[in-house]
## 1
Amino acid sequence: MKGESCMGNYLEDLAKKVDRSIIRNVSICVNYIGNQKFNIMKSLVPGKSLEDILYGITNEKVFNYEITSVSSSPTNVILGPGLLRRQEIVINLSINTNNGSTPNIYFEKELKLIEETEDLYWRRLRRKIGNDLLILPATAALIFKESKVLLAKGPNTEKWMIPGGLVELNEFLSQTVIREAKEETGLKIVPRKLLNVFTGEDFILTYPNGDKVQIVSFPFLCEVIDGELNPLDNEVETLQFFELDNIPKLKGDNWLKVLEMGAKELKNERIQ
């Protein structure tokens, strides 16, 4: 498949540049429950969304899919002539090509924060590969107060963002969203539900210094259990709650879809 060739080139090219450093990769493990049953593993491909890859696997339109779990484990994989040390984040999901409802998956267990290392994983990679495209997993914390959602704004910019950040090595996604929410908002939160997984061309960013990334975003609906609004790092200057019909300019229009999905889910919970 074209996607497989693209992914192979991406990982092989990256492996040549990072000199046996650990590469964080994101894959999906599909349990297909349509007209036939099988399990299949596919790596995310640069520029492709989750829906694109599911369609490539089934050759049918996927009406709904349920994210059953997200796991992370270190593995060693041989690719071509060199050894690629790869730590996988695996999105386990069930899909159905028959239109129907998707059950909710809740995350009720609070996990301990892990300490942030000074020399971050992605910075170590950047020193070796320069500005080349990296696929990087990240979490986003959707924090609502009644009908308003919390947004953050950094210094020297007029664009707002959902609090969140990149996953570090050996972190669970739940740990990442807890850590990032604490650092950027001062709030202690519990991630209650993983809403969906967002990636693809709309999530490719080029930073002012030329670094290119494709974000694989894991947005969580979160509950505040303690703390006051007070950003602890220099990436956030202002925090404010906004009504959904009065959202300011975001860092990307694609994030509005994430906010709307969170608000819809919150409304459904209140009805129930």
## 2
Amino acid sequence: MAELIDADSLTWKTNLVEGVFNSNEALLICSIPLNLRNNSDQMIWVSNAKGVFSVKSAYFLDCLIKQQSVGEASNGVAVLLKRQIVEDGLCPICQSNEENVIHVLWNCSAAMDVWGERESPLNKWSSVYKDFRLLWLDMVNRLDVVQLDQAAVILYKIWARRNCFVFKNIFHSPLALVKSALNEVEVFHESQVRLTYVADRLLPQINAVEWRPPADPFYKLNFDAAFDSEKRLMECYALLRSIKLCHELCLYQVVLEGDAKAVVDSVNGYNNNHSWQGLLIEDIQFFMKGQADWSLKFTKRHGNKAAHIVAKLGMYLDSESVWIEEGPQEVLSITLLEKPCTV
């Protein structure tokens, strides 16, 4: 592995990697971040958020492995039946079919009575579904927002009614269940209207957070990351790339600013995290300590709009892109709006 890494620049020897591995493997290898402090490798426990082994995390990992070996996690009755906790796997309400998620929520005669109520958003549906995911996908495609909210609450109440019948021998009528669900949805939407009114009144205060230029002779570099998952990890990579850019441009008086509060607090505080994110934080702290006139500050999203837009655009790029002076129209429009704040 060491032969594939340039010890001086601490980067992958791209030509060598591409010569040894196929194109897909080379792309994956070269995308692996390298430690920038050139310190020794260390083992981390990936099943713990901080990378440290604990008996608790090992227990949950063992449970997860066993659960995956059993099969479909949603069919909990099959597991209970296998462990002889229940006598049979039949639906406790209709006693005629095997109990699973789609049966309880849709195919059971008791569930059909609920969906057949006149006020139900699905009272004219006659489709038979074999999987709950297909049912939910159909709901999302065919219902409007209010109807989808109503259907979601009815689904919850059907499941709650099943549990109430099993454990308390109490069974609510379909009409009472539907009316209760619709009433809760109505209350929810009314509360959202009130919250929107309050938010509109607070919006001028929120918008008061604007991008501000640094004091002379400092430069300011705003960073952000767009991601599908692993939010904090991507924010760490964005900050690390920003630091590398400052080194490449030989900037010695810099204010780094971003809206990832957890990352900013971790870098400015004490890091005791040995996970992938923790190792990145250590790299960032290492570079920051070597620059006496560098600082890292948190700003709210409204004060980081240009960087946020650039990050979103970056999700559609296949390789790194750099703009000097000019840039995408979406970013230029934001900077022009922020220009009065710099006077």
